[in-house]
Amino acid sequence: MDTISVTSWNELQDRLFEGAWMPDLHLYRSQYAFRGLSRADYPLETSLFRLCKGHADLERHLLRNFRKYAHRDIVERDSLWYWLSVAQHHGLPTRLMDWTFSPYVAMHFATARTEKFDMDGAIWAVNYKRVHEALPNSLLELLNREGSDVFTVDMLTEKVDALDEFDALAEEDFVLFFEPPSIDDRIVNQFALFSVVSNPLTPLDSWLENHPEVYRKIIIPSGLKWEIRDKLDQANITERVLFPGLDGLSSWMKRQYTPRRRSRE
Protein backbone atom coordinates (compact mmCIF):
# COMPACT_ATOMS: atom_id res chain seq x y z
CA MET A 1 0.00 0.00 0.00
CA ASP A 2 1.06 3.52 -0.73
CA THR A 3 -0.01 5.83 2.14
CA ILE A 4 0.59 9.50 1.47
CA SER A 5 -0.01 12.48 3.72
CA VAL A 6 -0.42 15.55 1.53
CA THR A 7 0.54 19.04 2.66
CA SER A 8 -1.23 21.28 0.13
CA TRP A 9 -4.19 21.57 -2.23
CA ASN A 10 -1.88 21.22 -5.25
CA GLU A 11 -0.22 18.09 -3.92
CA LEU A 12 -3.64 16.57 -3.28
CA GLN A 13 -4.62 17.15 -6.92
CA ASP A 14 -1.41 15.52 -8.11
CA ARG A 15 -1.92 12.46 -5.92
CA LEU A 16 -5.57 12.02 -6.86
CA PHE A 17 -4.92 12.17 -10.59
CA GLU A 18 -1.69 10.18 -10.43
CA GLY A 19 -1.66 7.39 -13.00
CA ALA A 20 -4.56 8.82 -15.02
CA TRP A 21 -2.56 9.31 -18.24
CA MET A 22 -3.19 6.53 -20.78
CA PRO A 23 -0.34 6.63 -23.34
CA ASP A 24 -2.09 4.33 -25.81
CA LEU A 25 -5.15 6.62 -25.86
CA HIS A 26 -3.29 9.92 -25.44
CA LEU A 27 -5.99 10.80 -22.91
CA TYR A 28 -6.39 11.08 -19.15
CA ARG A 29 -8.61 8.16 -18.16
CA SER A 30 -8.22 7.20 -14.51
CA GLN A 31 -8.88 3.58 -13.56
CA TYR A 32 -9.38 4.43 -9.89
CA ALA A 33 -12.45 4.44 -7.69
CA PHE A 34 -12.40 6.96 -4.84
CA ARG A 35 -13.94 7.00 -1.37
CA GLY A 36 -13.63 9.99 0.95
CA LEU A 37 -13.79 9.61 4.73
CA SER A 38 -13.97 12.37 7.32
CA ARG A 39 -11.64 10.42 9.60
CA ALA A 40 -8.48 8.72 8.40
CA ASP A 41 -8.88 5.85 10.86
CA TYR A 42 -12.34 4.82 9.64
CA PRO A 43 -12.20 1.24 8.30
CA LEU A 44 -13.68 0.12 4.99
CA GLU A 45 -16.57 -1.77 6.54
CA THR A 46 -19.98 -2.10 4.94
CA SER A 47 -23.19 -1.19 6.75
CA LEU A 48 -24.11 -4.90 6.71
CA PHE A 49 -20.82 -5.87 8.34
CA ARG A 50 -21.35 -3.33 11.13
CA LEU A 51 -24.91 -4.55 11.68
CA CYS A 52 -24.53 -8.31 11.48
CA LYS A 53 -21.48 -8.67 13.79
CA GLY A 54 -20.60 -12.05 12.31
CA HIS A 55 -24.14 -13.22 11.54
CA ALA A 56 -24.09 -13.27 7.75
CA ASP A 57 -27.51 -14.92 7.55
CA LEU A 58 -29.09 -11.54 8.38
CA GLU A 59 -28.31 -10.44 4.84
CA ARG A 60 -30.87 -12.65 3.13
CA HIS A 61 -33.56 -11.71 5.66
CA LEU A 62 -32.96 -8.01 5.14
CA LEU A 63 -33.03 -8.25 1.37
CA ARG A 64 -36.01 -10.63 1.27
CA ASN A 65 -38.14 -8.33 3.39
CA PHE A 66 -37.00 -5.22 1.55
CA ARG A 67 -38.15 -6.81 -1.72
CA LYS A 68 -41.41 -7.81 -0.08
CA TYR A 69 -42.34 -4.40 1.32
CA ALA A 70 -40.82 -2.04 -1.26
CA HIS A 71 -42.81 -0.85 -4.23
CA ARG A 72 -42.06 -3.09 -7.18
CA ASP A 73 -41.95 -0.19 -9.63
CA ILE A 74 -38.78 1.24 -8.07
CA VAL A 75 -36.60 -1.25 -9.98
CA GLU A 76 -36.39 -1.77 -13.71
CA ARG A 77 -36.47 -5.53 -13.36
CA ASP A 78 -36.72 -8.18 -10.65
CA SER A 79 -32.98 -8.70 -10.34
CA LEU A 80 -30.78 -9.23 -7.30
CA TRP A 81 -28.37 -6.51 -8.41
CA TYR A 82 -31.11 -3.97 -9.04
CA TRP A 83 -32.61 -4.66 -5.63
CA LEU A 84 -29.24 -4.48 -3.89
CA SER A 85 -28.50 -1.15 -5.60
CA VAL A 86 -31.85 0.34 -4.62
CA ALA A 87 -31.58 -0.98 -1.06
CA GLN A 88 -28.08 0.48 -0.60
CA HIS A 89 -29.17 3.77 -2.12
CA HIS A 90 -32.03 4.08 0.37
CA GLY A 91 -30.05 3.15 3.47
CA LEU A 92 -30.66 -0.56 3.96
CA PRO A 93 -27.57 -2.33 5.37
CA THR A 94 -26.04 -4.29 2.48
CA ARG A 95 -22.68 -5.75 1.51
CA LEU A 96 -22.24 -2.93 -1.02
CA MET A 97 -19.97 0.04 -0.42
CA ASP A 98 -20.31 3.47 -2.05
CA TRP A 99 -17.51 4.77 -4.28
CA THR A 100 -17.21 7.42 -6.95
CA PHE A 101 -15.32 7.88 -10.19
CA SER A 102 -14.80 11.53 -9.20
CA PRO A 103 -11.90 12.50 -6.93
CA TYR A 104 -13.71 15.77 -6.22
CA VAL A 105 -16.82 13.99 -4.98
CA ALA A 106 -14.55 11.96 -2.69
CA MET A 107 -12.97 15.20 -1.47
CA HIS A 108 -16.45 16.47 -0.66
CA PHE A 109 -17.26 13.48 1.54
CA ALA A 110 -13.90 13.80 3.28
CA THR A 111 -14.65 17.43 4.19
CA ALA A 112 -18.46 17.65 4.45
CA ARG A 113 -18.65 17.31 8.24
CA THR A 114 -17.30 20.45 9.87
CA GLU A 115 -17.45 18.85 13.33
CA LYS A 116 -14.70 16.49 12.13
CA PHE A 117 -12.35 19.26 10.98
CA ASP A 118 -10.07 18.71 13.96
CA MET A 119 -9.34 15.19 12.69
CA ASP A 120 -7.36 13.98 9.70
CA GLY A 121 -9.45 12.71 6.80
CA ALA A 122 -8.60 10.28 4.04
CA ILE A 123 -9.35 9.37 0.45
CA TRP A 124 -8.97 5.76 -0.63
CA ALA A 125 -8.11 5.26 -4.30
CA VAL A 126 -8.51 1.73 -5.63
CA ASN A 127 -7.54 0.63 -9.12
CA TYR A 128 -10.64 -1.33 -10.12
CA LYS A 129 -9.04 -2.67 -13.29
CA ARG A 130 -6.25 -4.30 -11.31
CA VAL A 131 -8.74 -5.52 -8.70
CA HIS A 132 -10.67 -7.26 -11.48
CA GLU A 133 -7.57 -9.17 -12.57
CA ALA A 134 -8.20 -11.40 -9.54
CA LEU A 135 -11.79 -12.22 -10.54
CA PRO A 136 -13.04 -15.75 -11.23
CA ASN A 137 -12.64 -16.63 -14.89
CA SER A 138 -16.36 -16.52 -15.64
CA LEU A 139 -16.62 -12.89 -14.51
CA LEU A 140 -13.34 -11.85 -16.08
CA GLU A 141 -14.44 -13.33 -19.41
CA LEU A 142 -17.65 -11.33 -19.20
CA LEU A 143 -15.73 -8.08 -18.71
CA ASN A 144 -13.41 -8.90 -21.59
CA ARG A 145 -16.31 -9.80 -23.87
CA GLU A 146 -17.97 -6.47 -23.18
CA GLY A 147 -14.70 -4.55 -23.45
CA SER A 148 -15.46 -2.93 -20.09
CA ASP A 149 -13.45 -2.16 -16.98
CA VAL A 150 -16.42 -2.25 -14.55
CA PHE A 151 -19.66 -4.20 -14.45
CA THR A 152 -23.25 -3.06 -14.86
CA VAL A 153 -26.21 -4.60 -13.07
CA ASP A 154 -27.32 -6.16 -16.36
CA MET A 155 -23.94 -7.79 -16.88
CA LEU A 156 -23.97 -9.26 -13.38
CA THR A 157 -27.56 -10.44 -13.74
CA GLU A 158 -26.61 -12.30 -16.89
CA LYS A 159 -23.93 -14.25 -15.04
CA VAL A 160 -25.35 -14.76 -11.53
CA ASP A 161 -28.54 -13.62 -9.80
CA ALA A 162 -28.29 -15.10 -6.30
CA LEU A 163 -25.84 -14.22 -3.55
CA ASP A 164 -25.02 -17.81 -2.65
CA GLU A 165 -24.16 -18.49 -6.30
CA PHE A 166 -22.05 -15.34 -6.40
CA ASP A 167 -20.13 -16.30 -3.25
CA ALA A 168 -19.48 -19.79 -4.62
CA LEU A 169 -17.82 -18.60 -7.84
CA ALA A 170 -14.38 -18.93 -6.22
CA GLU A 171 -12.90 -20.47 -3.11
CA GLU A 172 -11.00 -17.30 -2.21
CA ASP A 173 -12.68 -13.97 -1.57
CA PHE A 174 -12.83 -11.62 -4.55
CA VAL A 175 -13.95 -8.04 -5.10
CA LEU A 176 -15.66 -6.33 -8.00
CA PHE A 177 -16.92 -2.85 -8.85
CA PHE A 178 -20.14 -2.13 -10.69
CA GLU A 179 -22.12 0.91 -11.73
CA PRO A 180 -25.59 1.21 -10.20
CA PRO A 181 -28.58 2.01 -12.39
CA SER A 182 -29.33 5.72 -12.71
CA ILE A 183 -32.18 5.59 -10.21
CA ASP A 184 -32.15 9.34 -9.58
CA ASP A 185 -30.08 12.49 -9.97
CA ARG A 186 -28.16 11.77 -6.78
CA ILE A 187 -26.50 8.67 -8.25
CA VAL A 188 -25.81 10.48 -11.51
CA ASN A 189 -24.38 13.63 -9.91
CA GLN A 190 -22.19 11.67 -7.52
CA PHE A 191 -20.71 9.66 -10.42
CA ALA A 192 -21.37 6.62 -8.25
CA LEU A 193 -20.25 3.03 -8.31
CA PHE A 194 -20.37 0.21 -5.79
CA SER A 195 -17.88 -2.37 -4.58
CA VAL A 196 -18.94 -5.83 -3.44
CA VAL A 197 -16.94 -8.58 -1.74
CA SER A 198 -17.85 -12.24 -2.30
CA ASN A 199 -17.87 -12.78 1.47
CA PRO A 200 -20.09 -10.41 3.49
CA LEU A 201 -17.90 -10.96 6.56
CA THR A 202 -14.71 -9.79 4.84
CA PRO A 203 -14.04 -6.04 5.26
CA LEU A 204 -12.70 -4.51 2.08
CA ASP A 205 -9.63 -3.07 3.78
CA SER A 206 -8.70 -6.59 4.97
CA TRP A 207 -8.86 -7.81 1.38
CA LEU A 208 -6.84 -4.82 0.18
CA GLU A 209 -4.09 -5.50 2.72
CA ASN A 210 -3.38 -8.70 0.81
CA HIS A 211 -3.31 -6.79 -2.50
CA PRO A 212 -1.24 -3.69 -1.69
CA GLU A 213 -0.44 -3.04 -5.34
CA VAL A 214 -4.04 -2.06 -6.24
CA TYR A 215 -4.62 0.95 -3.98
CA ARG A 216 -3.30 3.97 -2.17
CA LYS A 217 -4.59 5.89 0.82
CA ILE A 218 -4.23 9.67 0.82
CA ILE A 219 -4.26 11.31 4.23
CA ILE A 220 -5.76 14.81 4.43
CA PRO A 221 -4.37 16.65 7.50
CA SER A 222 -6.97 18.41 9.60
CA GLY A 223 -5.29 21.75 8.98
CA LEU A 224 -5.90 21.44 5.24
CA LYS A 225 -9.62 20.68 5.42
CA TRP A 226 -10.88 24.27 5.51
CA GLU A 227 -8.98 25.22 2.38
CA ILE A 228 -10.22 22.14 0.53
CA ARG A 229 -13.79 22.76 1.67
CA ASP A 230 -13.78 26.40 0.61
CA LYS A 231 -12.36 25.60 -2.82
CA LEU A 232 -14.83 22.77 -3.38
CA ASP A 233 -17.69 25.12 -2.52
CA GLN A 234 -16.42 27.65 -5.03
CA ALA A 235 -16.20 24.83 -7.62
CA ASN A 236 -19.87 23.95 -6.88
CA ILE A 237 -19.05 20.53 -5.39
CA THR A 238 -21.64 20.79 -2.63
CA GLU A 239 -24.58 19.01 -1.03
CA ARG A 240 -26.87 21.18 -3.15
CA VAL A 241 -25.52 19.46 -6.28
CA LEU A 242 -24.72 15.99 -4.97
CA PHE A 243 -28.03 15.60 -3.09
CA PRO A 244 -30.57 17.38 -5.31
CA GLY A 245 -33.68 18.42 -3.43
CA LEU A 246 -34.56 20.17 -0.21
CA ASP A 247 -32.51 17.84 2.02
CA GLY A 248 -29.32 18.62 0.12
CA LEU A 249 -30.14 22.32 0.02
CA SER A 250 -30.67 22.38 3.78
CA SER A 251 -27.42 20.50 4.46
CA TRP A 252 -25.50 22.88 2.23
CA MET A 253 -26.96 25.98 3.89
CA LYS A 254 -26.40 24.60 7.39
CA ARG A 255 -22.73 24.03 6.63
CA GLN A 256 -22.36 27.38 4.85
CA TYR A 257 -23.62 29.23 7.90
CA THR A 258 -21.62 27.27 10.46
CA PRO A 259 -19.02 29.69 11.92
CA ARG A 260 -15.48 28.44 11.72
CA ARG A 261 -14.90 29.03 15.42
CA ARG A 262 -17.78 26.62 16.25
CA SER A 263 -16.09 23.85 14.28
CA ARG A 264 -12.89 24.41 16.22
CA GLU A 265 -14.74 24.08 19.49
Descriptors:
4-stranded mixed β-sheet, alpha+beta, 265 residues, single chain, globular
The counted number of beta strands is 10
Structural class: alpha+beta
In spatial order, strands of the major sheet run 1-10-6-4
Give the overall pLDDT as a whole number: 93
Stretches where pLDDT falls below 50 for ≥5 residues?
Answer: none
* Broad shape: globular
**What composes the largest sheet?**
4 strands, mixed
What is the number of helical segments per DSSP (H or I, 4+ residues)? 15
Strand content: 15-25%
The SSE string, one letter per element, is EHEEEHHHEHEHHEHHEHEHEHHHH
Helix content: 40-55%
Molecular structure report:
The model has no long low-confidence stretch (mean pLDDT 93). The two termini are 34 Å apart. Helix 5 crosses helix 12 (225-234). The chain has helices spanning 9-16, 47-52, 58-69, 80-89, 103-111, 128-131, 137-146, 153-159, 163-167, 185-189, 204-209, 225-234, 239-242, 246-256, 260-264, and strands at residues 2-5, 21-22, 27-28, 32-37, 96-100, 121-127, 151-152, 175-179, 192-197, 215-220. It has one domain. The strands form three sheets. A four-stranded mixed beta sheet has the order 1-10-6-4. The protein has a four-stranded mixed beta sheet with strand order 5-9-8-7. Strands 2-3 form a two-stranded antiparallel sheet. The chain is globular. The protein is built from 15 helices and ten strands. The chain is an alpha+beta fold and 265 residues long.
